[in-house]
Design brief:
Blueprint: H1 18-31, H2 52-55, H3 69-84, E1 142-145, H4 158-164, H5 166-176, E2 178-182, H6 190-199, E3 202-205, E4 217-219, E5 224-226, E6 238-241, E7 252-259, E8 268-272, H7 273-279, H8 282-291, E9 293-301, H9 310-332, E10 336-340, E11 349-354, E12 360-362, E13 369-371, H10 375-378, H11 380-383, E14 397-400, H12 408-420, E15 423-425, E16 432-436, E17 440-444, E18 452-461, H13 476-484
Parallel strand pairs: 1-2
Antiparallel strand pairs: 2-16, 3-18, 4-5, 5-18, 6-17, 7-16, 7-18, 8-15, 8-17, 9-11, 9-14, 10-11, 12-13
Helix pairs in contact: 1-3, 3-9
């Protein structure tokens, strides 16, 4: 899709008019749906999800939350527009959070502006022996049902019970990867949800791509993000993903249901990364592990470059490539590279692509090898075979480390194994899914009507991490994109 329509004729003054054309690009991005998320339509809810797109079904489920694709473009739009006018700098006031003793009662404070940055991704992906992967003893989810606890849990004592069970619960989380807390009363409102996670001594942090605006802060004072509830995203399937980039990864996440989708759907999806690895064909796994992956998060079709005189195309292309990189990369902190024509479809398509990374990682605590890759959601091959209304600017893709295409047979196999391991969770009001973000991938089914689910991300359990307030991103881009584009 050419964002500017058919290429227009340009004279020798074209390079001088570059910024004018960037304004046109901005308008084109917004018109193309730059605010729409990059989610992928997916599987129909069931205990054993089928491979929807590959079978041609009109599905309703979703993968990696909202991707950065459209947000990268939205960020470029907002920031590039700013370069043409009076530059403005906005600094958020940072309120340093007191680090209470690991087991002490925590004083409830307003967390607005006080959250530390998401911690750096812990990579330990070298020298993994694909042929000698350890067996998975326990998997996700473990279910803790308040209705089955009887006298052990009396009404009004949920916080006290969770506090008393903290060490056991966190040990169970390490073993299973995710815990589904069902039929709890106190977690039906944001303040009760906060009491829940504070009873477990979990320390909230910003989303890994907070500046993208992909998730708005639903309740700032309680560090609660909305979990992809916007009507414009209801028909998109959020595929399996870890909430991470090559640079940043949240350690834990807690998803809560405040209101089920009024007309159905919207089920929460999880899959155990250790089980995905265990079930994958060793040859496919060895191939993708050796080759590594590179994830493309956005497409900018700068087709007007084709209308420039031959002696100006290269300089103009380089100028825009450098300009957009300088505007976008600092806002997302994703280790991005701007590459022309990586997908071989358009020489003037500028793609924002993460650097090569391993699709497998070792869990930072247990050492268990896990599938740590968002291919299930980001693969263009899979998206093109699923109902998908994402505009071209927001389309993502996954390549081999050298930017060659991953064999389609391998992509199909990975998709089948991922969907085989999906657990569909029809969360009710007050239900919470606590997950280990390094081990368990998550997603969301499509829905109809109004839905209110939320999530809080955590950097650690116990004592907060030191030095995580330094150079943290502010809320400017998050609020701008959510108010104007998404």
């Amino acid at each position: 899709m050419a964002l500017l329509g058919s290429p227009r004729s340009m004279s020798a003054t074209a390079l001088g008019d570059t910024m004018s054309d960037m304004s046109r690009i901005a308008l084109g991005l917004v018109a193309a749906g730059a605010g729409a998320a990059f989610l992928t339509p997916g599987t129909t809810p069931s205990k054993a999800p089928a491979t929807p797109g590959l079978r041609g079904t009109t599905s309703s489920s979703t993968g990696p939350g909202v991707t950065t694709g459209t947000a990268v473009a939205s960020c470029a739009v907002a920031a590039l527009a700013a370069t043409r006018g009076k530059a403005t700098k906005r600094a958020a006031k940072v309120v340093r959070q007191q680090a209470p003793p690991a087991v002490a009662e925590r004083k409830t404070t307003d967390l607005s502006g006080a959250l530390p940055d998401c911690p750096a991704t812990i990579w330990n992906a070298d020298d993994i022996d694909i042929k000698k992967l350890p067996k998975v003893k326990e998997t996700a989810p473990l279910i803790i049902d308040a209705a089955e606890l009887g006298d052990e849990l009396k009404k009004g004592t949920e916080k006290e019970w969770i506090t008393a069970q903290k060490d056991k619960i966190m040990s169970q989380l390490e073993a299973h990867g995710a815990i589904w807390f069902r039929n709890f009363e106190s977690t039906k409102q944001p303040d009760g949800f906060r009491e829940f996670y504070e009873a477990l001594q979990l320390n909230p942090c910003l989303d890994p791509i907070h500046t993208s605006g992909l998730r708005a802060m639903e309740e700032k004072k309680h560090a609660v993000y909305e979990a992809v509830n916007k009507p414009s995203l209801a028909g998109h399937f959020v595929g399996l993903h870890n909430e991470s980039t090559f640079v940043k990864t949240a350690t834990y996440g807690a998803f809560v249901c405040f209101k089920q989708a009024s007309e159905g759907g919207g089920e929460f999806l999880i899959a155990d990364g250790a089980k995905i690895l265990e079930d994958m064909d060793p040859e496919v796994l060895e191939r993708i592990y050796t080759n590594k992956v590179r994830i493309s998060v956005s497409n900018l079709d700068l087709n007007f470059l084709g209308s420039l005189p031959d002696d100006m195309k290269e300089s103009a292309s380089d100028f825009l490539q450098d300009l957009i990189f300088k505007v976008v990369a600092p806002k997302f902190d994703m280790d991005l590279e701007m590459v022309y024509g990586a997908d071989q479809s358009n020489p003037y398509r500028l793609q924002a692509i993460e650097h090569a990374q391993s699709p497998i990682n070792k869990h930072p605590v247990t050492g268990q090898p896990v599938w740590f890759c968002n291919l299930h959601n980001h693969s263009r091959y899979l998206r093109d075979r699923r109902p998908c209304t994402v505009p071209e600017v927001g389309m993502t893709d996954v390549y081999s480390g050298d930017l060659s295409a991953i064999p389609y047979d391998d992509v199909r196999h990975i998709n089948e194994v991922c969907e085989k391991n999906i657990k569909v969770m029809a969360m009710k009001e007050g239900d919470v899914v606590l997950l280990d973000n390094y081990r368990v991938l998550h997603g969301r089914n499509t829905f109809k009507g109004d839905r209110k689910h939320a999530v809080t991300w955590f950097e650690s359990c116990g004592e907060p991490l030191e030095g995580n307030q330094k150079q943290k991103p502010d809320d400017f881009m998050n609020e701008l994109i959510n108010k104007t584009l998404v």
